[in-house]
Task: structure prediction
Amino acid sequence: AQKVTQAQTEISVVEKEDVTLDCVYETRDTTYYLFWYKQPPSGELVFLIRRNSFDEQNEISGRYSWNFQKSTSSFNFTITASQVVDSAVYFCALSGARDSNYQLIWGAGTKLIIKP
Amino acid sequence: EAQVTQNPRYLITVTGKKLTVTCSQNMNHEYMSWYRQDPGLGLRQIYYSMNVEVTDKGDVPEGYKVSRKEKRNFPLILESPSPNQTSLYFCASKQGKTEAFFGQGTRLTVV
Result:
């Protein structure tokens, strides 16, 4: 069975601190895709990144970076020098390529609060 | 502009009064789905559709119906809404390995 675990329900940090959101997944597929989405207070779901299982290179996009480690089945997300606008709920998701539906399995989300 | 459009954004209704939430996408995606989001439970899939006239149950289908008569539209129907269906609903579309594109969400309150 596939599963995504985001053990951190809520994280609160002061602005300019670095913060890492954890994501651990379970799958028996050899080919799969991992995603991060952001849900700001306004409610919409914003796509951040997609990573396939054969690409373990870390990704950096501005203040955002992602660390994918197959050995520990983790796909963690780090925000450097956090800002108040980063306050949101962040979801990690998994999609298995074996399933032609490519259905998304979601973590429960981590609520990130950045205090000024 | 590629988008998924849901309507309405907000809806307050009474128990038992049938309602439909519409969803339309302009990306010619084959796959569409409905989710509900409740505090602490993340996103749970209600129904999904692989293509026109092909629909299947997700994790929480009870109390909901869907139809897929055209590729672009995937309405969610609540025949007899109950208060436990008060939630935030999202429609999504995707094609194969791509990310899912989401609508803006519909906040439904059933009193």
About this structure: The mean pLDDT of chain B is 94. The interface with chain A takes residues 31, 33, 40-45, 48, 50, 88, 90, 94, 96-102, 104-105, 107 of chain B (CB under 8 Å).
